[in-house]
Amino acid sequence: ISFAEALQHFQSSGLSQNRRKVRGPGRRGGLAVLLRCLGGPPRLRTQLRGEQELALAMAQCALDDSEQVHMRILQTIYRQLTRSRLGCPRYGTHWEELGFQGRCGVEGLEVPERRRVFHLSCSNAGILVLFQNFPFCIMSVNITRIVIQALREERLCRECNRRQQVIGVLNDLYAAAFLRLFRLWKRRCGTVADAGSFLKELELSTKKKPRQLLRSLEAYVS
């Protein structure tokens, strides 16, 4: 499945129940408004709020074995990352190739918010970290969580407003954070034991310096 087709599926499916779960930031008091006027982050433009809501609703979407599009996304991620021309069984030890733990693959995978997340960034799957015992998909889901949280906390409004899009910024920031992880892992000869501290660094960079991360990605790609 292509990224565009997968995204279109979620756009057309409505996700009404998930959208109701999405709660934006609370109303701000006078001091918060004053600080924003004095140079704080801008608010997301009105015309982008629908796309923001869609992204947050997708983050609430649990993997459904009975949904054909969900299974196609899963198969595509597997084939893109392994360069296999064949699909794979839903369950089995082959998921360990991608950094999942155990034969159940994504079935038992939950992020700290206790919600399974679709990261629709398979178009950025070319940035691979080919080290032994690297927990690729576990780190991927955590990076997705970090990026979604940055959006929820309005840390990405300036960049979204500049580019007039939300999901495109999320995908690029996801790739940029993974590139940052690659460099940290390589420079510090990382192991699985370092994953937690690396994720903390990524979270700080993603929330405090998203534009710097994106520029690093642009330089890398060019």
From TrEMBL:
InterPro entries: ELMO_dom, ELMO_domain-containing. It holds the Pfam family ELMO_CED12. Residues 69-210 form the ELMO domain. This is ELMD3 protein. It comes from Cephalopterus ornatus (Amazonian umbrellabird).
